[in-house]
Amino acid sequence: MNTSENLNKITAVIPFYNEEHHIGEVVEKVLKYADKLILVNDGSNDKSEQNIPSDEKIILLKHSKNLGKGAALKT
């Protein structure tokens, strides 16, 4: 892949905390536009992760406890 191809790539970062009812729909919509999607589970204690669709474009990172949006974005 050459440098100009790298400049045209879109990566989205989505931190989430207890979003089991919404995360699946959000991920599906973002995957239509992003080449890579980084999801940060900020210590959820619900079923959010189970509602994330399987896709090779997704990277899932996890915090063992809720650290807040700022920490999740820095991860």
What is shown here, in short?
The chain has 75 residues and is α/β, with parallel strands linked by helices.
Topology:
Layout: H1 3-7, E1 11-16, H2 23-31, E2 36-42, E3 58-63, H3 69-74
Parallel strand pairs: 1-2, 2-3
Structure explained in plain terms:
Helix content is 27%, strand content 25%. It has 75 residues and is of the alpha/beta class. Strands 1-2-3 form a 3-stranded parallel beta sheet. The protein is globular.
Keywords, please?
75 residues, alpha/beta, three-stranded parallel β-sheet, 3 helices, 27% helix
Tell me about the biggest sheet? Answer: 3 strands, parallel
- Overall shape: it is globular
Helix segment tally: 3
Number of strands: 3
Distance between the termini: 26 Å
Helix content: 25-40%
As a percent range, the share of strand residues is 25-35%
